[in-house]
Design a protein that fits this description.
The complex is a heterodimer of chains A (about 375) and B (about 80). Chain A contains 10 helices and 21 strands. With about 375 residues, chain A is α/β, with parallel strands linked by helices. In chain A, helix 1 runs parallel beside helix 9. The longest helix of chain A has 21 residues. With about 80 residues, chain B is an alpha+beta fold. Chain B has a domain of about 35 residues. Chain B has a 4-stranded mixed sheet, with helices on one face. Classes of the chains: A alpha/beta (about 375), B alpha+beta (about 80). Chains A and B meet through loops of A and strand 1, helix 1 and helix 2 of B.
């Protein structure tokens, strides 16, 4: 009898799992022994990290998008029909259309979403670039900015851990390029007692901020924003004035996860090396959807997806487990408009970033195109 | 009835134990407790300091075998 693999979510992690499986078990799929079905929320695939460049005029919108059907291997059965209920006891998923899909193996790749509405005044008073509409509005705000106080405000939890620093240093270079830096003051706020969670990156960034004249306020957990008075206040008792507020909003997991009782906040309790939902042997969890205490980033999703592909392939073809996830994460770090560095780490290896260079920045720009090979499972 | 949640942040270099704690507290009810494991010795000092600053209660901390732990009660 045919084995059914059901993937809920059409973002990077779900797409890599689907495409990777098609390559690993193509003969089983061709013979009809295995089917792969994806339930997505959109017919379009977006390269999310590219949004970083949009407000600064460094990427065109059309470069961010491709039709999801063209990104997916032709063997994947793809439905744009968001899941509304995931029943892991009875092994079935119900969709918005009313369609019901059963499965032998389920991959949860439902991702994360922005929740600026969780902080009073933040949605009304702030700009962000973590989604297309926000990035467009931030681009317009920067077009109209003539100098003044900018606050770059970071909230937890959020994906893409180094993006707040990238935004800050790119803002500085952008404003220098427009001749506005002398009229601008940037204050960067961060929830814990250093400028980034990754300690070695924070150790590099703090003196770089000092040298650039970028102020910072650590231990700043946003309590509220007053859009009329243009102030932002923290739980720790600090209030800052702003002319332009740029935020990294707090995130949550997908609504279908909480609605299905699979995890508080939309994060699914997940085994840190097996990537199985806690309590399940047939439900894998990938990317932002896990509650594993590591970075929510595209590279995390990619490395996890590779492990899930290998394990599902081995389970289907040899009835055995292949390998464990080692916690690997890799992040490019744009340190301005012309330089970049990178950092990687896993559960046992601490991060150790190198000195920023133009070559790494160029490689990041190249990766902005190579991404589509990653999504197709070729890189 | 209050609950106790566990965050096993051993080997978590990013976002790290305190960021995980901050995110977890947002999902908890008043009076709920969270215990956090960390392989970073600084956690046993940083977490109680931050709790004192914002008004949560760090009710226990110390060293256990291969890691440090802190128990926090949501108080606001």
């Amino acid at each position: 009898m045919s084995k059914k693999i059901l993937i809920v979510g059409g973002g990077l992690s779900g797409t890599i799992v689907a495409n990777g499986l098609c390559r690993q078990i193509k003969s089983e799929i061709r013979k009809g022994d295995v089917s792969i079905t994806m339930l997505g929320t959109s017919d379009t695939h977006m390269y999310q990290p590219g949004l970083l460049y949009l407000p600064f005029g460094r990427i065109r919108e059309r470069e961010l998008f491709r039709p999801q059907r063209k990104v997916l291997h032709k063997s994947v059965i793809f439905h744009v029909d968001p899941a509304t209920n995931i029943d892991v006891d009875n092994k079935r998923v119900t969709c918005k259309s009313g369609a019901v899909h059963d499965y032998d193996y389920l991959v949860l790749a439902t991702g994360s979403r922005l929740m600026p509405q969780n902080i009073p005044g933040l949605a009304e008073g702030a700009h962000w670039l973590y989604d297309l509409e926000g990035a467009r509005k931030m681009r317009e705000a920067l077009d109209n900015f003539e100098g003044g106080k900018i606050v770059v405000n970071v909230n937890a939890p959020h994906k893409c851990p180094v993006a707040p620093l990238e935004i800050t240093f790119m803002l500085k270079d952008y404003l220098q390029g427009k001749g506005l830096w002398d009229k601008t003051e940037i204050t960067y706020t961060y929830p814990i007692g250093r400028v980034l969670a990754l300690e070695p990156v924070a150790e590099w960034a703090k003196p770089a901020m000092d040298e650039s004249g970028i102020k910072y306020e650590t231990f700043f957990n946003t309590k509220e924003v007053d859009p009329a008075a243009k102030t932002i206040s923290s739980e720790e008792g600090v209030t800052l004035d702003y002319d332009l507020l740029v935020t990294i909003p707090p995130h949550a997991g997908a609504e279908v996860i909480t609605d299905s009782g699979l995890g508080d906040g939309g994060w699914v309790p997940t085994h840190r090396t097996k990537l199985l939902r806690e309590g399940s042997t047939d439900v894998f969890v990938c990317g932002d959807t896990t509650n594993i205490p590591i970075s929510k980033a595209g590279s995390t999703a990619h490395f996890e997806a590779d492990v899930i592909i290998d394990n599902l392939t081995s389970l289907l073809t040899e009835n055995r487990w292949a390998r464990e996830y080692d916690g690997k994460v890799f992040c490019f770090v744009e340190t301005g408009m012309k330089t970049g560095t990178y950092v990687w780490f896993d559960y046992k290896t601490p991060p150790n970033p190198g000195a920023p260079s133009q070559m790494i920045h160029w490689f990041k720009l190249a990766y902005n195109r190579l991404y589509w090979l990653s999504a197709k499972g070729l890189l | 009835m209050s609950e106790r949640k566990l965050i096993d942040a051993r080997g978590s270099f990013c976002p790290g134990p305190l960021m995980e704690l901050i995110a977890a507290l947002k999902l908890m009810q008043l009076g709920d407790e969270v215990e956090i494991y960390s392989t970073d010795q600084g956690t046993a000092k940083d977490v109680p300091e931050w709790c004192a600053k914002v008004g949560h209660e760090a009710i226990e901390s110390g060293e256990k075998n291969d890691h440090w732990f802190v128990v926090v009660r949501k108080a606001k």
